[in-house]
Amino acid sequence: MTPDAAIARCRELIAEPLSAVADRWKAERPDGRVIGCYPVWAPAEVIHAAGMLPVSLLGGGTSVELTHADARFQSFVCSIAKSTLELGFQGRVAGVDGLVFSNICDVARNLGSIYRRNFPGTFVEYLHLPQNSTSSSVVPYLAAELRRLAAAFEAAFGLKVTEAALAAAIEAYDALRTRIRALYALRIAEPQKLGTTELYAILRAATLLPVAEATATLDALLPSVAARDARPRDRLRVVVEGAFCEQPPLGLLEVLEEAGCYVVEDDLLLGWRWYTADVGTDGDPFERLASAYVNLAVPSSTRHESRTHRATGLIEKVRRGRADAVVFMPAKFCEPALFDYVLMKQGLERAGIPHMLVEFEEKMWTFERTRNEIETFVESMLFE
Amino acid sequence: MAQPVTERAYQGRVHVESRRLMTAWMGELGRAEAAGQVTGALMISGNCVELLRACHVLPMFPEVTALQNAIRHKSLPLILKAEQAGYSSDNCAYVKADVGLVLEGGFGPGKALPFPNLIVCNYVGCNVYVKWFEHLADISGGRLFMLDVPFARTDAPSAADVRYVVQQLEELIALCESLTGRRFDIDELREILALSARAQDGYARCKHLTKRHPAPFDSYFDSINMMGPINVLRGTPEAAAFFDGAVAEFEALAAQGLGPLSEERFRTVVEGPPPYPFYKSFRNLFTRWGAVAVQSTYSTVGGIWEFGFRHDPRRPLESIAEQMLRENLTNRSIVARYAQIRRYVEEWEADALVIHSIKSCRLFSAGQGDMREHFIKDLGVPTLLVESDLEDPRYYAEAQIRNRVDAFFEALEHRKLVAAH
Predict the structure, then answer these.
(1) In a 10 Å sphere around its CB, with 0-12 CB exposed, 13-18 middle and 19+ buried, how is residue B211 labelled?
(2) Average pLDDT of the residues in B43-71
(3) Which helix (H) or strand (E) holds B229?
(4) pTM, whole model, 2 decimals?
(5) How far is A116 from chain B, CA to nearest CA, in Å?
(6) pLDDT at position A160, please?
(7) pLDDT tens across B140-165, in order?
(8) How many whole angstroms from its chain centre is CA B212?
(9) For residue B190, what are the contacts with CB-CB under 8 A and spacing of at least 6?
(10) Cβ–Cβ of A132/B146 closer than 8 Å?
(11) Whole-number mean pLDDT of chain B?
(12) Chain B contacts of A136, Cβ < 8 Å?
C-alpha cells in the first residue's frame, strides 16, 4: 500500500464515531471491552493488560451539534468538555464500556463526575496523577493509583491485570512509541515528506487501533514515507505548542502549512507518546510505569515539573527541531495552555525565539483570518 | 412585593473583631521582611496553615490579597496590567490581579506585602493553584514546594493517599527547618492543632445556628467575617477566642429571634463564591426580597467543619492529611458537592438554591448547569443560576442579574402563596 493510501485509511478511521471503532473490535471479540481515554495521559498499558482496547476520547470536534451539553456547561467552558458529554447524550460512544479521566484541569475534573452522573451505566474512573515530581513518595503513590485502576477494572468487568500481562503491555506500547518517535524524527529531518495533518492522522489512528496493529501500520508506513520523493521548500520551521487536549480542526493545521510553515514539533496527542525513552522491562511493572510517568515524561502543561522551568522543554524542542519559531495554539478557554503561554513566551523572548499566538476551537470552520495572520508572520520571518 | 425588607445593623463584635485580627495579621506581614521573619504563601482551600505556624513560617495568602483588592474596587487596573503582559481574558482573574499587583509595584521586596520566602502550593483540587504558584515562584524567586493532594475519588482516602500526603508534609517540615534554622517540635504542632480544633468547633456551632428561624446571620454574605479567622488564623489563640465570641454573639441573637434582616421571607443555600467587586450591590438584590442564606458552599472551601471533622492533636500529620484529602469542598467532585448542598437544603430547611456561577473559577463553576438540572428536575428544589465573576468587574451585569433575581423570587413568592392556600 502506498503511503497516501495508508494515510487515507487513517483519515477514514479517525472520522468514525467511537461507537463504530468499538463495534468493530467487539465483532471479533464478543466479550471484548473498550475504554475511552480522555486527554492527556492514561495508562493504556493497564487497559491493554486487562484484555481491553484503549482508545482516545477526544471530544466531538465538528461531528456533533451541542443540544444537551450546553445546558450543563457554561459558555466559558472549553468545547471538548461539552462535546465529550454530548457524545454520550447522542449515543456516539455506545459500545465504549468505560472512560478514564484525570486531573489535567478543573473542567476535566468536573466533567468526569458529571459524565458518571448522567450515564450511570458507564464505567467512569478518575485518576489523580501526581503533580509533585521530586518527592520520594511519588512513585509508590502512582504505582498504588495504577493498581487501584486495575482493581476497578477487575471489579467492574472481572478482568484481572496480572504483572506478566502488564509487563507484556509495556513492551508492546514501548514498541509502538519507538515507531512514533521515528516518525517525529523523520519529520524533523525531512518535513517535506510528512505533512502535519498526515502525521496527525497516522498518530490519531494509532490511538484507535489495537497496539500490535498500530505498530504494524507504522512499520509499513515508515520506510514508504521515507522513500517519498519531495523537494524541500522555503518554509518557516515551527513548533506548535498548546494543542495537547482539545483537537485543532484539520483545516487549521492545513492552513498552517499552506501559509508557509513546516511544523517540525508539536504537542498533539501528547499522552500517547509520553515517554522520552522506553519504559523498560525491569522490576515491578506498576512501579516502572509510575516511575516513567514522572521521570521520563515529556514536558506537558498538565504536569508540574519542579526540576525545570516551564519554558525549558519548549526551548529544547525548538533546538531539537531546528525550528525558527513557535506557534502557540491553545484551545479557547484552556487554562493550562493559556497560563503556560505567559511563562513560555517570556522564556522564548529571553532566548530570542520568535512566536505567535493562534487560539482555536474544535468547531472552528473558517480559517481565513488565521491564514492572514500566519502568512504575515511567516513573511516577516522569511524576508527579514 | 409586600413590606420592604431592611437590613439590621447586627454584625457587631464579630465583624469588628474579624477586621482587627486580619489587620493585625497584615501588619505582621508588612513587618516580616525587616524582622527577618520567614514567610510562606499558601492557598486557602484545604490548607495546612497549622504546619507552617508550627514551623515558625508566617503564612500569607495570595487569594486574600486578590479578594481585598476586588472588594475595594481596585482589581480591574491590576487585571488589565496582567493582560497586557500576556495573560488571557479567559484566565482566572484572581491570579491576574495578584500578578498585576506585582507589576504595579504593590507586592514585592520592601512593600507592605513582601514576596514569600517559601511558596507551598497546597494542590487541593484546584489546578489553577499549580499555575498560580508556579508564576509566583517565577516572579518572586521564592522556593516552591508542590504539596500534591490526591483528589477525593473513592469513598474514603486510601492508605496510599494518606501516606503520600504525610510523607510530603515531612519533606515540607525539613524544608522549613532549613529555611528558618529552627527545629520542628511535634508537641508545638499538637498545641496548635488543639487551638485549631477549638476554632473549628466554634465555626461549626455558628453555622448550625443558622438552622434557627430566623437565621441569626447570613451564612453567605456574613460568613466572610469568619472565613478570614478560620482559614488564615486557624491555630492561634486569637482565632480560637474569636470563635468563642462569635458563638456567644450569634446565640444571643438567635435567642432573641433576630436575624440579619427585618424579616426573613426566604431561606436560601448559596453555591459559589461572591462577586467581590459588587459585594454589597449583590447582597442588596437578595435583601430586598427578604432572602437570607442559611448555608453556603463557599464558606467550606478551607474546610468542612459543620459535619464533625476536627483536627486531632494525637495524630497530627495524619489528621492534617485527612483534612486536606477529604474535609474541604475543593478536593471533592462537583457531584459530591450536590450531596453537601442537598443536606444543607434539607437540614437547614431552605426554600431555594442560588448558584452564583463565576467565570474565573472553573473548579466551582464548570458544570453548574448540570447542578441546576439535578436540583430542579430530580429534587424539585427551586434553583436560580446567575453568572458573573469573583474578581473581574467586567463580568457583572447588574440589570441582567437583578432581572433574574427578581423574576426568581416573584415566582417563589407565588409558589408560597399557592402552597399556603
Answers:
(1) middle
(2) 97
(3) helix B224-231
(4) 0.96
(5) 9
(6) 97
(7) 999 999 999 999 999 999 999 999 99
(8) 23
(9) B313, B314, B316
(10) yes
(11) 96
(12) 167, 171
Q: Which of residues 136-175 of B touch A (CB under 8 A)?
A: 138, 144, 146-148, 150-151, 153-154, 158, 160-161, 163-164, 167-168, 171
pLDDT in tens, B60-81: 999 999 999 999 999 999 999 9
Regions of chain A with pLDDT less than 50: none
Phi and psi at residue B358, in whole multiples of 5°?
A: -115, 140
Domains of chain B: 14-167 (3.40.50.11890)
Partner A, chain B 66-95, Cβ-Cβ below 8 Å = 85-88, 90-92, 95
Which amino acid is present at A197? T
Cα–Cα dist B269/B19, whole Å:
25
Q: Which three cell numbers stand for residue A88?
A: 454520550
What DSSP state is assigned to residue A61? T
Interchain proximity B123–A131, CB inside 8 Å: yes
Nearest chain A residue to B82 by CA: give it.
Answer: A342
Q: Does B11 have pLDDT greater than 70?
A: no
User: C-alpha angle B28/B169/B128, rounded to 5°?
Assistant: 75
Angle between helices A196-206 and A250-258 (to 10 degrees): 150
DSSP state for residue A29 in the 8-state scheme: -
Looking at per-residue pLDDT, the higher value among A63 and B234 belongs to B234
Q: Please tell me the predicted confidence (pLDDT) of residue B12.
A: 78
Q: Is the minimum CB–CB distance between B135 and chain A shorter than 8 Å?
A: yes
A60 Cβ neighbours under 8 A, 6+ residues apart: A83, A84, A86, A87, A92, A362
pLDDT at B2: 64
Q: How far is B234 from chain A (nearest CA, A)?
A: 26
pLDDT for the residue B10: 65
- pLDDT tier at B352, thresholds 50, 70, 90: very high
Each residue's pLDDT tens digit, B33-42: 999 999 999 9
Contacts of A310 in chain B (CB under 8 A): 134, 138
Residue A106, min C-alpha distance to chain B (Å)? 5
Residues of chain B contacting A144 with CB distance shorter than 8 Å = 158, 160
Look up the ipTM and state it. 0.96
Mutation site for A-interface testing, chosen from B103, B122, B129, B131 by largest number of A Cβ within 10 Å: B131
Q: Using CA atoms, how far apart are residues A189 and A182, in angstroms rounded to an integer? A: 10
